[in-house]
Amino acid sequence: MRALLLDGELQFVEDYPTPTPAPGEALIRVRMAGICNTDMELVRGYMHFRGVPGHEFVGVVERAPDAEAWEGRRVVGDINAACGVCATCRAGRHTHCPQRTTLGISGRDGAFAEYLTLPVANLYTVPESLSDEVAVFTEPLAAACEILEQIHVHPTDHVIVLGDGKLGLLCAQVLALTGCELTVIGRHTQKLDILTRMGIATVHVEHDAPLEGIQGADIVVEATGHPDGYATARALVRPRGIVVLKSTYHGAVEANLTMATVNEITLVGSRCGPLAAALRLLERGMVNVTALIEACYPFDAIRTAFTHAGQRGARKVLVSLAAAAPPADES
Amino acid sequence: MRALLLDGELQFVEDYPTPTPAPGEALIRVRMAGICNTDMELVRGYMHFRGVPGHEFVGVVERAPDAEAWEGRRVVGDINAACGVCATCRAGRHTHCPQRTTLGISGRDGAFAEYLTLPVANLYTVPESLSDEVAVFTEPLAAACEILEQIHVHPTDHVIVLGDGKLGLLCAQVLALTGCELTVIGRHTQKLDILTRMGIATVHVEHDAPLEGIQGADIVVEATGHPDGYATARALVRPRGIVVLKSTYHGAVEANLTMATVNEITLVGSRCGPLAAALRLLERGMVNVTALIEACYPFDAIRTAFTHAGQRGARKVLVSLAAAAPPADES
């Protein structure tokens, strides 16, 4: 099958082996995939990943153990494939299973290919009302919903989202649903305008400009994707406030943890979230994801899509495989 | 009055001006003071403090606005002197008042002197049953109690205390009261033995030795006092577990916050705590602090006391002023 292969650098290959589903897994034909900042970090060396990247997708189940229930269904999927039997899984923390593979990130080829495999337990049926272009946002929207799964955001809280990247824009929209006082701080006027049109307060800052007159938030969501986001978040949160850490990047950061101790700040690491909740929000039309689409490329132009996704200020770049893939048996 | 002055280096001075209490403040004659690791960090440049250090003390109220209620009373004190009127104070977070001074740490001369001043609102009467040597532990014990004020430690949790320093030994004793499964990891056999005799499990590790066979704790209390404690704590805590940050040190740390995000770890900065609760635990005999005393020096030997406190493995070094101080009027 055709696939984008990361092996030090990205290559588009025509003859990558179609994956074979393990017991309990489905073979899924990818219809659409999204490029995430994590994919760009993988290229920079994050997770030392070698294989097919891509973890945001919509696909159709081609083969599954329970054929009647699943085959032909349009699905999205939880990217963490857990063992299901270890102590961590039994404690309900499947996404943290130490034996897990993660689609397109660790130990499992991902969605920038004609086919992928995932356990059937990870799949969620996409409601008919949702287009592929909307449903492909389920995974990153779930990651935004994870914030509300982890901490209690009060309607009276002052919340700051730091960063107007793709994840920041989704986090902002999810946080806005709580009724909280919300300010999004970012560097890209065009992206902030998307939120402004939704009635969300935004502050535009130039690179390295000091943040004046903004401070004392109860909660700061650090979604800049940059190592320097932590220091800014710590400076903006009130004593005993919460900083939600959403950024993942390659490498460590010089962090003043003593000031977190002195100000008794709580830092909450936050990663993958509940896909079912994200699908409900999309179905109810509570989150506008189409405004976040930068471009959609055909699959054979995926390297161009990556270049586009890496441009400063780019929103979500999608890749469409819907019209192109032959049946799995023939690939 | 006689005082230990930090002005780049420590000097013992005979003619330091006796402090004048501001409105609402008491003048307190110091009877006993304890040397804390934070004092050693102040000497290294932490907080850029210049003045009289010392924040662990027992004293007698010499003068107070409500003379009848307070004068002659033996007291300990909350070291954070707050304004009482700002938004932070009104929200009940007095210890985080942005206008606060902190006894012997920031903006207010401390306890390594014959006299100190603190707001009357900060004072707690020491029960008669407690000796000065025990009561002087109220402030650090309160800092250990702060952990239970901030997070819910379940009796079924597996908790690791990292560090067998003075604060680590107090944190361990407070955590043991919850009934949790507790392991204290430290580098000093003699100090760990104090806990072993109390029925608390300990693990002795050599400097830089890898920690094998210990991991997956629900809660890790980082009380090493060293920048490298964070990485160890993060490696020992389970996904979605809690790391309590107790260490304060001069300078930043190279921290892998991405791994905290990936493992959805919660980091809780923890500083000063409830003195009333600490006094209750001491009065009930629930915490053994006398085992933590390394030595007690007369005040004029305080520089020797500092040298002793700085030795590897030293427990709490106390300084006694009880027999020495002349009345405030004469100083």
Structure overview:
In chain A, the strands form four sheets. In chain A, strands 3, 4, 5, 9, 10, 18 and 19 form a seven-stranded mixed β-sheet that branches. Chain A has 331 residues and is of the alpha/beta class. In chain A, strand 12, helix 7 (189-196) and strand 13 (201-204) form a beta-alpha-beta unit. The first copy, chain A, is built from eleven helices and 19 strands. Chain A has helices at residues 37-44, 67-70, 87-90, 132-135, 138-150, 166-176, 189-196, 229-236, 257-262, 275-283, 302-309, and strands at residues 3-7, 9-13, 25-35, 56-63, 74-77, 80-81, 101-103, 107-108, 115-119, 123-125, 158-162, 181-186, 201-204, 217-222, 237-245, 253-255, 266-269, 293-298, 316-320. Chain A has two domains: 3-137 and 289-320, Medium-chain alcohol dehydrogenases, catalytic domain (Quinone Oxidoreductase, Chain A, domain 1); 141-269, 3-Layer(aba) Sandwich (Rossmann fold). Strand 16 of chain A pairs antiparallel with strand 16 of chain B.
What descriptive keywords fit this protein?
homodimer; 331 residues; alpha/beta; Quinone Oxidoreductase, Chain A, domain 1; seven-stranded mixed sheet; globular
The biggest sheet of chain A, with number of strands, parallel, antiparallel or mixed sense and barrel status, is: 7 strands, mixed
Q: Output the radius of gyration of chain A.
A: 20 Å
In CATH, what is the class of the largest domain in chain A? Alpha Beta
Class from secondary-structure proportions of chain A: alpha/beta
Give me the count of strands of chain A. 19
Residues in helices of chain A, as a percent range: 25-40%
How far apart are the termini of chain A? 5 Å
Question: What's the tally of helices of chain A?
Answer: 11
